[in-house]
C-alpha cells in the first residue's frame, strides 16, 4: 500500500479490480441512456434527423416528427450529464487506483460515485423533486474531486 502499482500486476491489484468493476458499471449505465433516449424518441415520435422519420411517412407527413419533445430532451440532458461526470471519473479514477490507496477507501469512493450516478439518473428520469438530483450530482462530483486531490497529493507530494 502507498506505492504506485506496476502495470504487470494490475490484474492482481484489488484496488484496480474494484476500479474496473465500478467503472464498467457506470459506463454500462451511461450506455443504457442511449437506449432510453431511443425508446423515448420512438414512443414520442420525436426525431432530430429527417432520415429517422422514414418509418412514419414520406415528405410533408414525415416532417411533423422532426421536433423536440420535453421527455426526449430530459433523457438527453441526463445522458449529457453522465458524459460530463463519468468520463472524468474514468480518467481520475484510474490515476487514483494507481496511486496506491487503501482498498477500503477506494471502495468507498467507487461505490459512492456509482450509487450517486444511479440515483442521479433516477432523479432525472422520474423526475424526483430537487434537491435530490442536485445532491446526487454534488456527491458524485465531490468523490471525483477527492480522488483527484489524492492523486495530486501522491504524485506531487502536496
The percentage helix is over 70%
Global shape: elongated
Spatial extent as radius of gyration: 20 Å
Total domain count? 1
Characterize the largest beta sheet: strand count, sense, and whether it forms a barrel: none
What is the CATH homologous superfamily assignment? Membrane associated eicosanoid/glutathione metabolism-like domain
Concise description?
The protein has about 160 residues and is mainly α. Helix content is about 70%, strand content about 0%.
Structural description of this entry:
It is found in: Endoplasmic reticulum membrane; Mitochondrion outer membrane. Its EC number is 2.5.1.18. The chain crosses the membrane at residues 20-40. Keywords: Acetylation, Endoplasmic reticulum, Membrane, Mitochondrion, Mitochondrion outer membrane, Transferase, Transmembrane, Transmembrane helix. The protein has 158 residues and is an all-alpha fold. 71% of the residues lie in helices and 0% in strands. The chain has five helices and no strands. Helix 1 (14-44) runs parallel beside helix 4 (103-125). The longest helix has 31 residues, at 14-44. The mean pLDDT is 92.
Keywords, please?
0% strand; transmembrane; 71% helix; 158 residues; endoplasmic reticulum; transferase; Four Helix Bundle (Hemerythrin (Met), subunit A); mainly alpha; elongated; MGST1-like; Microsomal glutathione S-transferase 1
